Amino acid sequence: MERLRTFLKTLGPGLLFASMAIGTSHLVLSTKAGAQYGWVMIIPIILANLLKYPFFEFGVRYTSITENSLIQGYLNLGKRYLVLYGLITLVSVFTILAALYVVTSGLFINLFQITSININTVAAGLFAFISLLLIVGRYRFLEISLKLVISILFLALIVTTFLVINKGQVPSVVGFEPLHIFNEVGVLFLIGLVGWMPTAVEASGWVSMWSMEKIKSMDRKPTLKESLAEFNLGYFLTALLAVFFLIIGWLTLYGTGTELSGNAVIFADQVVSLFTTHVGDWAYFLIAIAAFATMFSTCMTAHDAVARVSLDVINKLYPKNSSFQKKSSFGVTVILLALINWIVISAFGGNMANLVALATFVSFVMAPLIGWMNLKTVSGKDILKKYHPSKGLQILSFLGMLFLSAFALYYCSIIIF
């Protein structure tokens, strides 16, 4: 009982990771993978989660041992590595939050039929509300609230998945022909699925920052074993929920010829309708709230993470500038991010796809390099040899780098040529 109580106290960074990852990559991409290509898409989903695992684990490992962020590890490798990570973060500053808030705002309007307010106004309201929560509640509030959200979502998905499996697969329409995975359209979808499953590799720095905050909030520092056990639970839940969404899409839509929207907001509404088909119309409002809560929590975790990482990068690049090291700096950074991304939404709302494409390109191309940097930090002089990753984990990380490099090269060949 005491062991369980201790474990529950360590819960935090892993669940925050799960909450951040279960956004559009799961709600949209996993469901669409099952709906368009069937059960076979479980293979790339499992592979992506397995082969990317070491890079996120290394972020938790480094912080648990050194009590420093992974960003410090990059600086210890050489300032050029920190500058590179800073440039990737800069792209995230102008794209990721804007894209997430647009989807969440549109989902709010669609699900609750609030057509009298435009998407910019809803986004402004969300930015203001989430900024207030992050500034006042800080890490502790984020952790407590997201434990509840993940628990509700997990239970809702277990029930829905069970009902869908029990009902069986919907019959295929006459003349149905499966889509080909290995043509240009299929491969591009596969690259997007793998690239964002469970999330972009640079988010390993985000997990590292949450691990630091967790250590600060506890009476005693968690051991490496405890920290990894907590993260592994969050990571396992992330992978499992991706499979649940895939099963729901496969058993309810594959072979029906249903036209799926390319718009993430409209598609999310279609997903909610799928849930209610199997649970009942009475559950629409509850499931709509669960879907919105999923995207809302993704916005909140991403906003918090980008603020923390941006501030840490600036402090490491300009250590003599004390203005970035004040207690109020986090709140100021949160507000600045909200303003920047609201301006991006207002100015480039119609061209958000181009901005997201830029972020996607940077994430995919840099993923193998970030993975290598992470391995380098946990295998170097900052950490005693006994805490270095096992041979098996190192081999898995090299396989992950090869896997990501192959996808990055193919993606570049399609984009450039």
From TrEMBL:
Cell location? Membrane
Q: Where are the transmembrane segments?
A: 40-60, 81-103, 115-136, 148-165, 185-212, 233-253, 282-307, 328-349, 355-375, 395-416
One Pfam family here: Nramp
Alphabetized, the UniProt keywords read: Membrane, Transmembrane, Transmembrane helix, Transport
Signal peptide residues on this chain, from the entry's feature table: none
Q: How does it sit in the membrane?
A: Multi-pass membrane protein
Supply the name of the protein. Divalent metal cation transporter
